[in-house]
Write a structure and sequence with these properties.
The chain is α/β, with parallel strands linked by helices. About 50% of the residues lie in helices and about 25% in strands. Strand 1 and strand 2 form a beta hairpin. The longest helix has 28 residues.
Length: about 300
């Protein structure tokens, strides 16, 4: 039994005429007759009385008609759902982002996305880069936005935006030039292993021939805010995103010792083989447009 057979059956039943039904459905009379014959032959029942040129529902046809209408109505409703999803009129997008992007970079973009697509619900989880990659790999999130390169062959990864780290401290001056000796002599407040912020800092240190194990680490904390607050309280120095420390620098509760002299990127993550939803594509398009606008402002 197919939906087309049901539609043609309903058309004949409502018009009690094969020719009128074929015209209404824009098919040939033979196609209508074949559909009815296929239903009758498959189930061994007669759906219509054929007397001369007349055609009337049998008792079986009369009982079957409301069921056929119900199936077609449900199929139409299902089609509308898919139309709405493809047209971004409804749906849920599950995404995961690392702390810096989720707290400081994404919110204005998500607000703009909600204004444009108010019927799309974005469920955003916050994890460090390593955990975000796991969620995308295992299908818990369709889209990830992270702060470091992820070495995973099943994930597609590409740059979405950029940022840089700033080494900050509570004191308003640095007693000596910021070099290898200074960096190795400071007590450090660090993010946890697996965070993009820590990975970027460690990459920078290695470029200076400093192994991460050579640093004096006083605290390892699980969020940007806890690192920032500890540094403000005098626990040591730390490297945080310019997005994270900008308000504290402006307020004078933190002071920049040095920039980490390399740009770091925010990366998009998607599973290479999973379905790409229109909602995720629309959000990525909005993110990329925002990135281009920022670059144009700098130029």
């Amino acid at each position: 039994m197919t939906l087309d057979q049901l539609r043609l059956f309903i058309a004949v039943a409502e018009r009690e005429h094969v020719t009128a039904a074929s015209r209404a459905m824009n098919v040939t009379q033979s196609a209508v007759s074949a559909a009815i014959a296929a239903l009758e032959g498959r189930y061994g029942v007669k759906l219509f009385h054929r007397v001369g040129r007349g055609i009337r529902l049998t008792e079986a046809g009369r009982l079957f008609l409301p069921e056929a209408r119900a199936v077609i109505a449900q199929a139409t409703a299902a089609e509308h759902v898919l139309d709405d999803i493809s047209g971004l009129k409804r749906g849920t997008l599950k995404a995961v982002a690392s702390q810096t992007t989720a707290a400081y970079w994404l919110p204005p973009i998500l607000v703009a996305f909600h204004r444009k697509y108010p019927q799309i619900t974005v469920e955003l989880a916050i994890s460090n880069t390593e955990e975000a990659a796991r969620k995308v790999r295992e299908g818990e999130a369709e889209l990830g936005i992270v702060e470091a390169i992820v070495d995973d062959p099943v994930l597609a990864q590409w740059p979405l935006g950029e940022d840089h780290l700033i080494i900050v401290q509570a004191e308003d001056r640095v007693s000596e030039p910021v070099g290898k000796d200074w960096l190795k002599a400071q007590p450090w407040v660090m993010r946890e292993p697996g965070s993009g912020t820590r990975a970027t800092l460690e990459h920078y240190l290695r470029s200076l021939d400093i192994l991460p194990g050579e640093l004096e680490i006083s605290l390892v904390l699980p969020s940007n805010e806890s690192v920032r607050t500890a540094i403000e309280a005098g626990a040591g120095v730390g490297a945080l995103s310019s997005l994270v420390v900008a308000p504290a620098l402006l307020a004078g509760t933190l002071h920049a010792a040095s920039n980490v002299l390399e740009t770091r990127f925010f990366y998009g993550l998607r599973h290479k083989e999973r379905y790409r939803s229109p909602a995720a594509d629309a959000l990525l398009d909005m993110i990329e447009r925002a990135g281009r606008a920022v670059k144009n402002q700098k130029v």
